[in-house]
Design a protein that fits this description.
There is one protein chain. The chain is α+β, with helices and mostly antiparallel strands and 458 residues long. It is 29% helix and 16% strand. It is built from 13 helices and 19 strands. The strands form six sheets. A five-stranded parallel β-sheet has the order 1-2-7-10-11, covered by helices on one side. A five-stranded antiparallel β-sheet has the order 17-16-15-18-19. Strand 12 and strand 13 form a beta hairpin. Helix 7 runs parallel beside helix 8. The chain binds calcium ion (CA) (3 copies).
């Protein structure tokens, strides 16, 4: 009796397995549980490929498991060997960081690091030898599908590896040249003229060549992401080139979706052509519910949309503050980080001009800074240029709301007895600020009420 019951259970399990495997295509994107992994850092299934078939030391092969900026040996076979583990976690889809062939090592002498993360692509049509072979990728996709799991590829269309340099400036020191100026004069070091594939990627006229992005205004689209060669994604040659490249990955492997890297730095017209083309390609391959999603990185406050992404001291996240306030006031509203806004206010209050710069240090409920450079607020590439209160200074310190340990954000307040903190914070919260302007002359800006009330700290 027990034997028959056991057999019955096995048959049932096999039947449901088959049904799952066939039905994964019907599953909607919003029903997926996605597991994101960096193949290099996940599992090493084949030590023979750790150096990507290259000879020499870390600067030639990119392999150095003792250095965090280099390849550590993980690969596609390693992921294949861990599918049980990933599925048992409850994941139904795997999002792999880019697996395309990268420039193994790049960076100025003394500052080199490797393409272990996969975002410095030179050949968009091949698997990076550090991660394995085309056969390894096919085996992984097929095995995942056999379990009813999906594979999402991480793709890049905004840039390639850093291969192009400019005659007029040294690498990393090329300020953005606007669209009303002439672009830089691009060149490729000898021996790298045809390092990219397909070959249209070696045509320098397919790039913006305008220098480094400040991640604001037009430079967010046309500027180089820290020197990475920014493609002219408004050029029909580039659009068709990427449709051909990534369409072929759908055709060859039947992958289930794409995550588009740095999507915010690509013109929307590109995406409006590319995305429908990929969906059509997937449908032709019998892939229903092909899922495309893009990366958008903003600071705690997304100034462009007026959205508060995360305000750790207030415990707020995902709040459309700009829209809500605008709706209530009936006026257009701009949302800005509080200390940045205070810095701009102090800059104006002090009568500074557009040729001057200033650092504004906030000593209140939190420790933070605002930077005004040449009359303009400087948010930095990730919108956190002034967040000095979230730079870990004590690895063994308390956990901060930002997720890191040992942040000095409570510096001025934390020195007080706990019963004083609330009151002091409240008092300081309204009136505080020290401005370092024009070569470090220190100006106090409205320390105000707490000082009048006799607060020694204020
Ligand atoms: Ca390996
Ligand atoms: Ca470059
Ligand atoms: Ca771009």
């Amino acid at each position: 009796m027990w034997g028959r019951g056991w057999l019955y259970a096995v048959v049932l399990a096999a039947a449901s397995w088959t049904v799952d495997a066939q039905e994964y295509r019907q599953r909607l994107p919003q029903d997926e549980v996605i597991y994101f992994l960096l193949p290099d850092r996940f599992a090493n299934g084949d030590p023979a490929n750790d150096r990507g078939g290259l000879r020499g030391g870390p600067l030639q092969t990119g392999f150095d498991p003792a250095a965090k900026g280099f390849f550590h040996g993980g690969d596609l076979r390693g992921v294949l060997g861990q599918l049980d583990y990933i599925q048992q976690l409850g994941a139904t889809a795997i999002w792999l960081a880019p697996i395309f062939k990268n420039k193994p090592v790049q960076g100025a002498p003394g500052h080199e690091s490797a393409g272990y993360h996969g975002y410095w692509i030179t050949d968009f049509t091949r698997v990076d030898p550090h991660f394995g072979t085309e056969e390894d990728f096919r085996a992984l996709v097929d095995a995942a599908h056999g379990r009813g799991m999906k594979i999402y590829m991480d793709i890049v269309v905004n840039h390639t590896a850093d291969v192009i340099f400019y005659r007029e400036c040294t690498p990393q020191m090329c300020p953005y040249r606007s669209r009303v100026e002439r672009p830089y004069t691009p060149y490729v070091p000898k021996g790298e003229e045809h390092i990219k594939f397909p070959d249209w990627l070696n045509d320098l006229s397919n790039y913006h060549n305008r220098g480094n992005s400040t991640f604001e205004g037009e430079s967010a689209l046309d500027g180089d992401f820290a020197g990475l060669d920014d493609l002219m994604t408004e050029n029909p040659r580039v659009v068709q080139g990427f449709i051909d490249i990534y369409g072929a990955w759908i055709d060859r492997y039947g992958v289930d979706g794409f995550r588009i890297d740095t999507a915010r730095h690509v013109n929307s017209e590109f995406l409006q052509t590319f995305v429908p083309a990929m969906l059509a390609r997937a449908r032709a391959r019998g892939i229903t519910n092909f899922h495309i999603f893009g990366e958008v990185y903003t600071g705690a406050v997304d100034v462009a949309s007026g959205r508060v992404e995360h305000a750790v001291n207030l415990g707020l996240s995902g709040l459309d503050l700009g829209s809500e306030v605008a709706a209530r006031l009936g006026r257009s509203v701009r949302v800005e980080n509080d200390v940045n806004a205070a810095a701009l206010g102090a800059f104006s209050l002090l009568g500074r001009t557009s040729s001057q710069s200033m650092a504004y240090l906030n000593l209140g409920t939190s420790l933070a800074a605002g930077l005004v450079l040449g009359g303009r607020l400087w948010r930095g590439s990730r919108g956190v240029a002034g967040e000095i209160g979230h730079i870990p200074v004590d690895p063994a310190g308390d956990r901060c709301g930002c997720g890191q340990r040992g942040c000095p954000r409570h510096g001025p307040i934390a020195a007080l007895a706990p019963e004083q903190q609330g009151d002091e914070a409240q008092q300081c919260g309204a009136h505080h600020g020290l401005a370092f302007a024009d070569g470090m002359s220190l100006v106090a800006v409205r320390v105000g009420e707490p000082a009048l009330r006799g607060s020694a700290r204020a």
